[in-house]
């Protein structure tokens, strides 16, 4: 086979795409595609998107680019793509990184040769029978630490924080995070609810607990990655290295 196409609902398409990008490392194109307009809508985009997805999947130029999302004439890396709007067709984008290419009259055109995203690591899913539970908690004003302790008490083995701005949380919630990290040995990854931009380590450093930052990965991608790392038995230091793309090997 030259490649594969996965049809998917668009609500959580980016999460499946990110997972496939992390665990399928054969070099052949894997294209994830969906439709923003249902089949009952006027001028539905499903058949057109599917045609373009298959066209990209069989293109020799699509090899060694990881998983890709193809919709609305755009070819986007699954590592960075996100759903930026709930309604229009032009919604799947990599806001800071841009598109890998585009299609014109159903002919794919790539803007540059195959390149691996900075810090991206590959993982095997062959021996994984289950992925540990990872919860996402969103930061907001007067956020109670009860939500964190509840997630842990109910079986979460990892936590992702969709922090305010560059990953920030309130002082009281930060104190609870320190407790969970240091005393329960549960990794907490700090991402951003802004959905784009970097969460740098300099903003969350602590002398009493290992805070882990997501770099340029949004909370949903951070959750998938943390689950994979936990499934592989990675320790805190290894998780921290993998979750920060700007410094990971």
UniProtKB/TrEMBL annotation:
> Which ranges does the record mark as transmembrane?
none
Q: Which domain of life is it from?
A: Eukaryota
Annotated Asparaginase/glutaminase C-terminal domain residues? 133-241
* Pfam families linked to this entry: Asparaginase, Asparaginase_C
- Check the record and name the SUPFAM superfamilies matching this protein: Glutaminase/Asparaginase
Presence of keyword Hydrolase: yes
Q: Which InterPro entries match?
A: AsnASE_II (IPR004550), Asp/glu_Ase-like_sf (IPR036152), Asparaginase/glutaminase-like (IPR006034), Asparaginase_C (IPR040919), L-asparaginase_C (IPR027473), L-asparaginase_N (IPR027474), L-asparaginase_N_sf (IPR037152)
List, for all copies, the residue spans of the domain called L-asparaginase N-terminal.
Answer: 2-111
Name the top EC class: hydrolase
| One of the GO BP terms on file | L-asparagine catabolic process
Molecular function terms, GO-annotated: asparaginase activity
What SMART domains does its record include?
Asparaginase
CDD domains in alphabetical order: L-asparaginase_II
What EC identifiers does the entry list?
Answer: 3.5.1.1
| PROSITE patterns referenced in this protein's UniProt entry, alphabetically | ASN_GLN_ASE_3
Q: What catalytic activity does the UniProt entry give for this protein?
A: L-asparagine + H2O = L-aspartate + NH4(+)
Q: Which UniProt keywords apply?
A: Hydrolase
- Record family assignment: Belongs to the asparaginase 1 family.
Name of protein:
asparaginase
Instruction: Give the organism the record lists.
Output: Amylocarpus encephaloides
